[in-house]
């Protein structure tokens, strides 16, 4: 069997999967040697099944751009392709998401498109040089939306990497930092001692382990604050350094004297302070950390091309406070059938169309019509669609048939393709707005498109506003849109949008359904609530999960969707998914399940604390205080440098001498002896008592 030297060649089965066609159709395309009138590079191999043991392979780099991009992006993260070593390398150095492998592949594809035509010419040929000169010196938009000026050196460097490598687009991917994902530094001064050769690597590792456990233990034993811990840990660090052969002079010669920093100490606070609170402050632990449950007194009983735009509706309405408001319509136009989907919103004063408005509108449209194959967004003045791109791209990643184009955009974002300055199919929605306004013109309050020359019922007076409620307004707009969808249009062959749509359905067309969960998290917003005993509050809603119990008092990152707030994605460390938290359940006052749930949560927290205590030592903080005090010298005794005296011949001296003599002459009173048997003979209490010796007891 003939071996293929390049890994960019794929067979008919792979091409069929890439084009979403049958394998027989793929073999026909390979035999024809072209796709959509673009010549493709093929070669014959032997040793394959059927057709006389011969078959055709196609070079991926000769495929149309969309197929080429689809192929390479499909290789990212696949363990059965040539990119698997790349992914394995990323896993070895850290999390794959850290390297943003897909983003790097998009950059590689962008570079390949710039050098692809130059690669068709021989090395050192005049044709290749002319092609490189043509491309160089210009500014291009990168996949991440940033502009970049491409130089000759860049192009030749990319060409060299491609030709001297494996001849694969992955050779053009930006390099990954070698230190990505590695552990943070210990103490810079201690690391510096290793670089100077004063401290060995082995001793450095041991000291780091001891200090780390010591700091954890101090937190777990409720040491009073980071300053105290840095002082204790610095003393312990100095002892260990001296034991390892480092002198005091070498320690003092460092920038900070090998002091343990606050940043290092704070690294362990959140995880091990909980142990201290549990062990030393039962009331605080009970009040703030023991999980609680919520009780209540109620019973329990139970959309091929879509153009998006935001447009003002020229109908004067009033808010509940009487102020004037002109509604905004988030519109979606199905170019193939002429259908229009409107979402009407009433904005407050100074408010603009926000992300959640667009998310809710797109979600409602997608659930009714299905997922669009291509989505065109007019980046006009009413709404900057760029802030919605990430949500649209997340949905597009889930469907290989969907792509997003931002019109009149100066940047390309991810899978977004720049459209031409004027795109007639996309701009058709602008004309449709004027058509639909013919129907809206019958609604009371219509003022026309010129706000400086509004249509008025009476000369010299303000236009009359729509008299009904918002529900009445929506109902009348629904009637106008229904009229639009049922009326025949010449652009649709004298058929209505509904009839046009029915024609496709009768021919077997079916929509691409999208689940509510997919839309929910694609347009989720990011919040940073503070966890409290497993519960996080977001916009008046409360969510609970056991995995949030150790994060009480800490802020976590949560992704929450306004149009369906039933669940929330929580990233406790800011990057990795910790849990998907649902609503916190509520229990009735007399429900025994509530007590059992509270006990279960408390037991779960105790298991977490027990697991963390294994990484700590129990310390006597008084001994640690005494140990630290020994390292600090005591305050010295001040020597007497002068004694103040009074001259005896002075007036004050004479007075002091007289007082001294007087004190010597004063007789001290004789100390009185108390005896229970002594009686004062002059005590009158005894005068009236007559007794003799006969009265004494024998």
TrEMBL record:
Pfam families per the UniProt record, alphabetical: Mu-transpos_C (PF09299)
TM segment ranges: none
N-terminal signal peptide: none
Residue ranges occupied by any Transposase-like Mu C-terminal domain in the UniProt entry: 530-575
Molecular function GO labels: nucleic acid binding
Gene3D superfamilies, per the entry: Ribonuclease H-like superfamily/Ribonuclease H
SUPFAM superfamilies the record matches: mu transposase, C-terminal domain, Ribonuclease H-like
Protein name as annotated: Transposase-like Mu C-terminal domain-containing protein
Organism for this UniProt entry: Pseudoalteromonas caenipelagi
Lineage: Bacteria, Pseudomonadati, Pseudomonadota, Gammaproteobacteria, Alteromonadales
């Amino acid at each position: 069997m003939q071996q293929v030297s390049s890994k960019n060649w794929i067979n008919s089965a792979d091409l069929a999967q890439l084009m979403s066609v049958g394998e027989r159709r793929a073999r026909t395309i390979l035999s024809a040697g072209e796709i959509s009138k673009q010549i493709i590079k093929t070669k014959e191999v032997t040793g394959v099944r059927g057709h006389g043991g011969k078959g055709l392979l196609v070079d991926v780099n000769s495929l149309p751009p969309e197929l080429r991009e689809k192929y390479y992006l499909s290789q990212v993260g696949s363990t059965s392709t040539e990119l698997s070593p790349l992914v394995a390398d990323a896993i070895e150095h850290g999390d794959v998401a850290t390297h943003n492998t897909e983003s790097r592949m998009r950059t590689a594809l962008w570079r390949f498109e710039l050098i692809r035509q130059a690669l068709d010419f021989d090395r050192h040929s005049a044709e290749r040089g002319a092609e490189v000169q043509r491309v160089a010196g210009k500014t291009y938009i990168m996949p991440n939306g940033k502009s970049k000026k491409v130089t000759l050196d860049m192009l030749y460097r990319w060409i060299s990497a491609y030709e001297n490598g494996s001849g694969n687009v992955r050779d053009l991917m930006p390099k990954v930092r070698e230190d990505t994902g590695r552990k943070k530094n210990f103490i810079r001064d201690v690391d510096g001692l290793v670089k100077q050769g004063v401290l060995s690597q082995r001793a450095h590792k041991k000291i780091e382990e001891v200090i780390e456990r010591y700091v954890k233990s101090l937190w777990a034993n409720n040491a009073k604050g980071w300053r105290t811990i840095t002082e204790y840990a610095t003393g312990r660090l100095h002892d260990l350094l001296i034991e390892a052969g480092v002198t005091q002079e070498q320690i003092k010669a460092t920038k900070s004297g090998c002091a343990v920093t606050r940043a290092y100490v704070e690294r362990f606070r959140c995880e091990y302070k909980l142990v201290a609170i549990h062990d030393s402050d039962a009331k605080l632990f009970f009040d703030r950390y023991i999980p609680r449950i919520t009780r209540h007194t109620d019973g329990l009983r139970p959309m091929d091309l879509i153009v998006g735009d935001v447009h003002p509706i020229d109908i004067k309405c009033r808010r509940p406070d009487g102020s004037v408001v002109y509604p905004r319509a988030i519109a979606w136009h199905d170019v193939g059938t002429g259908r229009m989907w409107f979402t009407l919103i009433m904005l407050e004063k100074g408010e603009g169309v926000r992300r959640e408005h667009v998310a809710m509108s797109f979600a409602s449209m997608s659930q009714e019509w299905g997922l669009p194959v291509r989505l065109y967004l007019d980046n006009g003045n009413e709404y900057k669609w760029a802030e919605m791109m990430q949500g649209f791209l997340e949905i597009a990643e889930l469907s290989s048939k969907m792509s997003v184009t931002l019109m009149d955009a100066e940047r390309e974002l991810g899978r977004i393709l720049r459209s031409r300055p004027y795109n007639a199919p996309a701009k058709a929605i602008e004309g449709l707005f004027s058509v639909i306004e013919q129907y809206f013109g019958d609604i009371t309050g219509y003022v026309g498109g010129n706000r400086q020359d509004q249509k008025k019922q009476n000369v010299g007076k303000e236009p009359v506003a729509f008299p009904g409620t918002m529900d009445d307004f929506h109902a009348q707009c629904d009637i106008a849109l229904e009229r639009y969808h049922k009326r025949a249009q010449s652009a649709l062959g004298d058929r209505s949008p509904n009839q046009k749509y029915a024609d496709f359905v009768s021919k077997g067309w079916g929509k691409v359904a999208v689940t509510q969960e997919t839309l929910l998290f694609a347009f989720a917003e990011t919040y940073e609530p503070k966890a409290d005993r497993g519960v996080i509050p977001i916009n008046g809603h409360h969510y609970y999960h056991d995995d949030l119990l150790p994060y009480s008092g800490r802020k976590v990152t949560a992704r929450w969707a306004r149009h369906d707030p039933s669940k929330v994605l929580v990233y406790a460390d800011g990057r990795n998914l910790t849990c998907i938290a649902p609503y916190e359940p509520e229990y009735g006052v007399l429900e025994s399940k509530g007590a059992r749930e509270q006990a279960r949560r408390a037991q779960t927290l105790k298991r977490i604390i027990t697991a963390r205590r294994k990484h700590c030592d129990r310390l006597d903080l008084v001994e640690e205080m005494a140990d630290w005090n020994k390292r600090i010298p005591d305050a010295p005794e001040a020597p007497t440098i002068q004694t103040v005296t009074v001259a005896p011949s002075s007036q004050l001296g004479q007075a002091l001498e007289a007082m001294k003599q007087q004190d010597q002459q004063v007789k001290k009173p004789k100390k009185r002896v108390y005896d229970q048997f002594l009686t004062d003979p002059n005590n009158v209490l005894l005068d009236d008592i007559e007794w003799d010796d006969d009265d004494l007891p024998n």
